[in-house]
């Protein structure tokens, strides 16, 4: 082991001296490798950033992989059947979704249609019935009111969608219901309440009266539009349960269930008995599917980057062969004084490996600097560039690419150097 370590150290030192002595050829080798290594680093960095952006909120919006989701059909009695089945259960939670407006009565919302506050979807809420669709606020003036999506929950949804509490607290399902519904806002809705001063009056389609809600917390839910969450038993004090599940009032019902819960067959049987057809729960695998798609794209782009890297390694090979041809007498003399063939091969290979490492360091440094420049210049207009960090897994890939290219470009010249006969020095 000590003998091997000594040979390795000798080859490395002589290889570094060779790099210093032939700076121009080292530079040309680095130019050949640079684009290939940079392509590998950029592909890996881009894939890492894309994966982090795409998968960061997918569980919040779609659900944890393995969760089963059932979407309620619009048949009479379905909402009550769901509420009766999942009440007080922890392995299944129903979400009764509808729209609400908080603020001045008789006015159009600041964000009509429940759009994000920095966007304009260009339309109000539509309510449809047997007579057609209409905007309940048509002709009303704009005022201090915020429109949002609201989800009334039968229990804690977080085991199925891991919402992250940012401030305040999450809904307490263990306490008695209150007349003033407790709301937990998502980050976009909280932005609206910070930006605008609106009266604490909430109205929903089909409600018997306007409510006075109380905001208890803010969560990150992966939804870019204003959204609020509250307890179902606090909302049904003011609005009949049948109205919440009515698609004509802009409502819908979703049930999130654990994969092995007995709720699924019971609920499907009840809904089938009410006249629903083709009722079935679907298993959430969004994260896995997105990962598979991203990995496929990464492999495709890595294959293209590898082709550029091989072309760069061919340039290093060409320079290495030319260098060995010029140093035949030097290597023959070293063999004559007892230098092992392995050390001669190690000298050439060390030069190409060090060249590959220097190229990788340059490519990684340029990628890090480029990402910071992009974040500085465009971070304010492109949210995905805000607080973005360079994935160091891409840096590791760049180092590996540099070493592989160094081996590919230096292996044949190293073999040629090791096979130079001692008699060559006599001819010289």
TrEMBL record:
Single GO cellular component term: plasma membrane
Key word Transmembrane helix present: yes
Keyword Ion transport annotated: no
Molecular function, one GO term: transmembrane transporter activity
Membrane-topology descriptor: Multi-pass membrane protein
Cellular compartments annotated: Cell membrane
Transmembrane segments: 296-321, 342-370, 390-412
Pfam families listed in its UniProt record: FtsX
Name of the molecule in the record: Putative ABC transport system permease protein
Species annotation: Actinoplanes octamycinicus
């Amino acid at each position: 082991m000590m003998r091997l370590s000594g040979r390795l150290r000798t080859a490395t030192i002589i290889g570094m001296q060779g790099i210093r002595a032939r700076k121009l050829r080292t530079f040309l080798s680095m130019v050949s490798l640079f684009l290939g290594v940079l392509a590998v680093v950029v592909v890996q960095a881009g894939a890492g950033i894309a994966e982090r952006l795409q998968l960061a909120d997918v569980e919040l919006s779609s659900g944890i992989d393995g969760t089963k989701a059932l979407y309620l059909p619009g048949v009479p009695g379905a909402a009550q059947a769901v509420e009766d089945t999942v009440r007080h259960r922890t392995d299944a939670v129903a979400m009764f979704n509808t729209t609400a407006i908080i603020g001045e009565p008789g006015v159009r919302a600041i964000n009509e249609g429940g759009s994000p506050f920095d966007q304009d979807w260009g339309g109000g809420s539509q309510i449809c019935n047997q007579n057609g669709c209409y905007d309940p606020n048509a002709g009303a003036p704009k005022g201090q009111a915020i429109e949002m999506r609201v989800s009334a929950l039968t229990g804690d949804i977080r085991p199925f969608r891991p919402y992250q509490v940012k401030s305040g607290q999450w809904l307490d399902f263990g306490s008695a219901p209150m007349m003033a519904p407790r709301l937990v806002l998502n980050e976009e809705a909280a932005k609206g309440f910070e930006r605008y001063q609106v009266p604490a009056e909430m109205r929903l389609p089909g409600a018997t009266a306007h409510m006075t809600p109380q905001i208890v917390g803010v969560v990150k839910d992966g939804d870019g539009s204003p959204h609020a969450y509250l307890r179902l038993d606090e909302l049904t004090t003011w609005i009949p349960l049948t109205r919440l599940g009515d698609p004509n009032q802009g409502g819908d019902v979703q049930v999130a269930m654990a994969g092995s819960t007995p709720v699924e067959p019971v609920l499907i049987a009840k809904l089938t008995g009410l006249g629903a057809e083709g009722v079935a729960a679907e298993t959430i695998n969004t994260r896995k599917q997105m990962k598979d798609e991203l990995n496929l794209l990464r492999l495709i782009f890595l294959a293209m980057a590898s082709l550029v890297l091989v072309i760069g390694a061919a340039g290093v090979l060409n320079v290495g062969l030319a260098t060995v041809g010029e140093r035949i007498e030097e290597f023959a003399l070293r063999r004559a004084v007892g230098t092992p063939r392995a050390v001669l091969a190690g000298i050439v290979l060390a030069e190409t490996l060090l060249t590959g490492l220097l190229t990788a360091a340059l490519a990684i440094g340029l990628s890090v600097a480029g990402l910071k420049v992009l974040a500085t210049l465009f971070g304010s207009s492109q949210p995905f560039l805000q607080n973005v960090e360079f994935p160091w897994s891409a840096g590791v890939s760049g180092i590996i690419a540099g070493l592989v290219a160094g081996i590919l470009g230096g292996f044949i010249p190293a073999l040629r150097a090791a096979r130079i006969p001692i008699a060559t020095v006599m001819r010289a």
